[in-house]
Amino acid sequence: MLIKNRIASDPLSSEITSKSTYLNRRSFLKGGAATAAAALMPWSVSAAPTRAREFPNLIKSPFSTDEPQNKYDDVTGYNNFYEFGTNKSDPYDNAGGFMNRPWSITVDGLCDRPGALDIEDLLTKYSLEERIYRMRCVEAWSMVIPWVGVSLRDVLKKFEPSSKAKYVEFTTLIDKKQFPGQNYPTIPWPYTEGLRLDEAMHPLTLLSVGIFGEELPAQNGAPVRLVVPWKYGFKSIKSIIHMRFVEEMPKTTWEQQAPSEYGFYANVNPEVDHPRWTQSKERRIGEFFRRPTASFNGYAEEVADLYKGMDLRKFY
Amino acid sequence: MASMRRSYQKPLVFLVCFGPVIWLTYGLFSGQLGANPIETILRNLGDWGLRFVLLGLAVSTIRRLTGWTGVLRYRRMIGLFAFFYVFMHLSVYIGIDHFFDWSTILNDIIKRPYITIGMTAFIMLIPLAVTSPKAMVRKLGGARWKKLHRLIYIIAPFGVIHFFLLVKADVREPLVYGAILAFLLGERLYRRIKKKEASTRSGHVSV
């Protein structure tokens, strides 16, 4: 049996190699191994995304639902993000090399203090909350997702919208290299969305920078996206680079694509069918049976007043 | 020797045609069908239904273009697999996706053109599947059987239209099926015109 007795004069292993050097070496080896693996298996690059940085000390929001959350793999592997491709798995497959830094959102239009909102400022100068919302896709499926973000109104207020501003228009980045889907005219690019100013200023409307307590993966709209939980998912525009205060109702992407199928408001409404399928039920991802869809996706108490006196069949 | 080769060829082709079912079953139990496995299964069965319909149409085209007559032996099997996949596609839509929610399903059939068209195509496939056994061919007589099976020239375009109408924005995939269908039908039309020309020309000669 070999027993090594340490003599007092022998250096400790920790004296020879500092812990940080040791850890660096490990990450260096890991990086090297990953590069080698990538060279052998090109598909492994996107198949093994590294988990992003985490947000500590998130404020719990009273708006959160206590319904069971969907699995991380489902939330990050089943996405409609046509910029990365039109299949549900395309965003996960193609989001690997997305560069979400540096990133800033231009905020201008009808406001007194136009300017830019840098992503780092958004991450550090605002108190980030966790909001667990239901997300209802126009395709009649839904998820429960723990978002990280701030109320959009806390951000918009700083730019002091003028009294003429009636709507906010949002635009996604155009970059054919990073967004391979933009090489085909499947939908009019860039993706454009809009909210009425009172919708944008509603406390439920979230400017999101994360999910599951960490930074947004690219396929979920990194680095910053909108979340409007009482509207169909396509209103919650991803990878935003521009917010503009305007007087006229913006022409949104899906409205341009198929005006009879996708309206500007797009409030979740079980009474108004999509021309090609019923909206009265939905499949919660992970469940077998379809469940009934709730008016305003279950947020009627908070938002129904915004639409008082409006014919929601006409303004779908 | 030749008969021996034939004896294992058919089961082999059968197994290949059955492959998608094996793959979907395996995928389901190993969790490889994604976040929405019901949708994946429904779409896949529909894809294969359309593929087999087109493959059935391609059999005689292949024979004419390559001169390989052996391919005709697999036409009945391909046709029956087309029916099988379309039937499974419809069954999953009714029994799993909507879990026998008849009011929704009936509403879909009446109100949504792509479902109306898909349903019509399925109903037209039924007599073709029923008359596929040799005994039925004999009973009907070759000419009538042939006439009945021309329904496929309506079924196949309906299948492509069904897919085209269902897609939200990216029509590239249904267009590929449409192009294949156009080729298969175009080849027949071209042959017909040529034949007619030849017969009128020969008619002139005889005058």
> How many structural domains can be distinguished in the coordinates of chain A?
1
- Rg estimate of chain A, integer Å: 23 Å
Model regions low in confidence, pLDDT < 50 over at least 5 residues of chain A: 17-49
Number of helices of chain B: 9
CATH topology name of chain A: Sulfite Oxidase, Chain A, domain 2
In the CATH hierarchy, what is the class of chain A?
A: Alpha Beta
Query: What general outline of chain B do the C-alpha atoms trace?
Result: globular
Give a structural overview.
The complex is a heterodimer of chains A (316) and B (207). With 316 residues, chain A is of the alpha+beta class. Chain A has a single domain, classed as Alpha-Beta Complex (Sulfite Oxidase, Chain A, domain 2), CATH 3.90.420.10. Chain A contains ten helices and 13 strands. In chain A, strands 1, 4, 5, 8, 9, 10, 12 and 13 form an eight-stranded mixed β-sheet that branches. Chain A has a five-stranded mixed β-sheet with strand order 3-2-11-6-7. In chain A, a hairpin with a 4-residue loop joins β4 (129-136) and β5. The longest helix of chain A has 22 residues, at 19-40. Chain A is globular and about 45 Å long. Chain A starts with 12 loop residues before the first helix and ends in a 13-residue tail after the last helix. Chain B is mainly alpha-helical and 207 residues long. Chain B has one domain (37-196). Chain B is 84% helix and 0% strand. Chain B has nine helices and no strands. In chain B, α5 (113-130) runs antiparallel to α8 (152-166). The longest helix of chain B is centred in the C-terminal third of the chain and has 35 residues, at 172-206. The radius of gyration of chain B is 20 Å and the shape is globular. Chain A binds chain B through residues 70-71, 73-74, 77-78, 82, 86, 88-89, 139, 141, 184, 186-187, 257-258, 273, 275-278, 280-281, 283, 285-286, 288-290, and chain B through 34-36, 38-39, 96, 98-99, 101, 104, 107-108, 111-112, 114, 165-166, 168-170, 172.
